[in-house]
């Protein structure tokens, strides 16, 4: 019911935007022939009607993923572009209102002011609005065409004072937030996996959200991600999307079955899924601990993780590395109650799939929701790394915050 209400509100807004923008564009072309006016009207409103029908069908009926993705992306780009157009038109209408009041006050305004190019202010502003609307449309379109699969290797040294000598120089690869249900380019995805394999990591981590919600989404990608291997093992944990919570199920039993299928997929790929448990990794005669919990997130996200079970029988280990999908878990519980955790590895934020990352400066809207949203954080002797994700969800692209494969090197102090 909530989705229907939200979609209805957004659709009404889009139609209101359409009426407003349509009339503004028509007003600057008064000399159009009847045929041109009719053609413009049919194209404008035909696109809007087809788009809205397509969106409702995509959300409420089971159609092909590719068609659904194209429809929803078109809707998203159209809405954002028109949203940017509206403020320019409001400026023009406000200007017109001032002129109207001046005329009412007997202040002569014989003709509308002209710009240096001898066009009316209204025409100038409407055309400016069209140009402004084209910027997000072009940027977001480029993010789909280029950013979605522009995988980047991020290298990070982790200095651990208690690291056993046998583990000094060990290389760990991290993937997070695959969201296989959003993929549409198997060749590009395979290329990203091969980038990871070329790094020849000793250990690999996956920190949750294998799918958007359904285990079946991995059907075409299981073989690709099965290639992720490491001599000391591949270890994984669950994210909030791995519970099927955002899908409509005929029964709780169906949702539970789907969840078990996701767990089975980890096993089929040769990944060691840690569900509130730990593993000892041995090199020579020395050991460190890999711990993994179910999703635990602050706020509205599920708190299935049980840290007390994950840390059992690990007191003798000099270093403990925790896989926990949601970075909010670090401050909410790990820092307060589990000082024995040396490093926590997370994902979840996606870096909002939009932002700025110059190396020295990084910004994303998601930072107003998550204090720790990208990269390495440290407090006292504990560290957190947040990977911005390998895949995407919702908007099928990335702008500025590109898909990430993290390569860590463990070093003793």
UniProtKB/TrEMBL annotation:
Keyword Transmembrane: yes
Keywords attached to this entry: Hydrolase, Membrane, Metal-binding, Transmembrane, Transmembrane helix
GO MF annotation list: metal ion binding; UDP-2,3-diacylglucosamine hydrolase activity
Domain Calcineurin-like phosphoesterase: 170-351
Transmembrane segments: 6-23, 44-63, 69-91, 124-145
InterPro entries: Calcineurin-like_PHP, Metallo-depent_PP-like, Metallophosphoesterase_sf
Any one GO CC term of the record: membrane
Any one GO biological process: lipid A biosynthetic process
Short name of one Pfam family: Metallophos
Protein name per Swiss-Prot or TrEMBL: Metallophosphoesterase
Lineage: Bacteria, Pseudomonadati, Bacteroidota, Sphingobacteriia, Sphingobacteriales
